[in-house]
Design brief:
This protein is 26% helix and 33% strand. By secondary structure, it is of the alpha+beta class. Helix 2 runs antiparallel to helix 6. It comes from Nephila pilipes.
């Protein structure tokens, strides 16, 4: 058995002992990690993961074989000292059934420590996380909704009418302080580093809505590991501003294979936008917490930042 500076997991079978290794995901692992997510058919964004690994370099735990093949993963990224978000929990199909997922999960939970934890539970897993996983608090006001299509969408179906006094611009460095203020006022905790890096990611576009020197909304679109355009975050005080932002985002990234937009179920306007674009609902997830809910004005949340990395 090779010597490695990480947790070692042994499994015995007909062909002898097999050893697996649990460690933190590194930036250089992201391409292989995205291959795993593609195999699972999940629209994750490699550059978004890189951004959040910069925020919390130890936040995603992975398991690998002797040869370096990634077996599975679980992230519990610290958004702040008091808040962590669980996601990316997966094991390759050929390694399932050996209890390996629990080993990588335990390491992720240990990293989160005493922070308030949040997650989006897939259908059928609510009871498991609530009764055995330590997530007793269930959000009842909304579901997190996966919406996507592999077909082209027509942004001409969305409005171009900008409300009076509002300008929508491609983000520049001088916009960042106003964006930071807006984001903090919406979600209630600071994400300055994540937002700054979000605006610099490759194969992405970010637009900001300004009024009288203040940010009144912003949005980003990125290319997923499956080649679609994924909108998120998309926030705005005014639904009319959100619609124009969404239109500009879709137009700005034309050579993609469909559109992904993860929403909250009680934002009725976001549903209308998706209907205009012909993007169907694929799955609804249940938001859960370890200690307390995060109260956010979801009327202003038109697309979530990322389902696996941060609450809104």
């Amino acid at each position: 058995m090779p010597v490695r500076s990480c947790k070692v997991v042994k499994r015995s079978g007909e062909n002898g002992d097999a050893f697996f290794y649990v460690r933190s995901l590194r930036q250089e692992d992201v391409p292989q990690f995205m291959e795993l997510r593609r195999e699972l058919g999940i629209h994750d964004v490699g550059s978004c993961l890189q951004t959040w690994l910069t925020v919390d370099p130890q936040g995603v735990k992975v398991m690998e074989t002797d040869s370096g093949e990634l077996v599975g993963a679980c992230g519990f990224l610290r958004n702040t000292d008091d808040l962590a978000f669980l996601g990316f929990y997966c094991i390759r199909s050929k390694f399932q059934g050996y209890g390996l997922g629990m080993d990588v999960y335990k390491d992720a939970v240990e990293h989160a420590g005493n922070a308030n934890g949040a997650l989006n539970a897939v259908p059928g897993k609510l009871e498991l996380y609530r009764d055995k996983g330590g997530f007793p608090i269930v959000e009842t006001e909304f579901k997190c909704v996966k919406n996507y299509t592999t077909d082209p969408v027509d942004p001409r179906n969305l409005s171009s009418v900008v409300p009076k006094g509002v300008s929508i611009e491609a983000v520049q460095d001088y916009h960042l302080p106003a964006m930071f203020d807006y984001d903090y006022s919406l979600v209630g905790f600071e994400r300055k580093l994540a937002l700054a890096l979000n605006c610099q990611e490759k194969n992405s576009r970010t637009f900001v809505a300004m009024k009288n020197g203040a940010c009144v909304g912003f949005g980003t679109i990125k290319t997923t590991c499956l080649g679609a355009g994924r909108v998120g975050p998309l926030y705005a005080d005014d639904p009319a501003v959100a619609e124009v932002l969404l239109k500009m985002l879709v137009i700005s990234l034309p050579n993609v294979k469909g559109l992904v937009m993860n929403t909250v179920s009680n934002n009725i306007t976001a549903k209308k936008f998706l209907k205009k674009l012909g993007v169907p609902v694929k799955e609804e997830l249940t938001r859960m917490y370890t200690k307390k809910k995060i109260d956010v004005d979801t009327k202003k949340v038109f697309a979530l930042f990322d389902l696996n990395l941060t609450p809104f």
